[in-house]
Write a structure and sequence with these properties.
Elements (H helix, E strand, L loop, with lengths): L1 H30 L13 E4 L2 E4 L1 H10 L3 E13 L9 E12 L5 E10 L10
Length: 127
């Protein structure tokens, strides 16, 4: 029984974290693109319509090259990825779908997948 409860708690937390991430991600995409690369690891790779973009500098350049956008997320699903598949790294698979309108283009459907990994964050208080 405790294992089932622990798993349910893990799933509930995963869903909350995923929803928070998605809200932040698409807000950045639509309004604060210069901050978007902060959501990616240094060696991250983004695949957009079959084209791979790797590394912080390339990602920043790619995001800035896109026309302004309006994303609306209609569906969100998240699944914790078993730690055996990720060498013990806490990881979530997040799948989104909805509509997007890029400036100068008609509204289209989109879907996007993310693999989120837990990272150690250190915050410094500036005086």
């Amino acid at each position: 029984m405790a294992t089932t409860l622990d798993f349910r708690t893990h799933v509930d937390q995963s869903c909350r974290y995923s929803e928070e991430f998605v809200n932040i991600y698409y807000d950045c995409m639509d309004k604060k693109r210069r901050n978007l690369t902060r959501l990616y690891l240094d060696k991250a790779t983004l695949v957009w319509n079959g084209n791979a973009v790797s590394g912080q500098d390339a990602l920043a350049e790619f995001f800035e090259s896109l026309p302004s956008s309006e994303f609306q997320v209609h569906t969100l699903d998240c699944q914790p990825v078993h730690e055996q598949a990720t060498q013990g790294q806490t990881t979530l698979l997040v799948v989104t779908g909805g509509t997007v309108k890029f400036e100068g283009n008609k509204q289209r459907f989109f879907n996007q997948n993310f693999l989120l990994t837990a990272q150690l964050l250190i915050f410094f208080k500036w005086k």
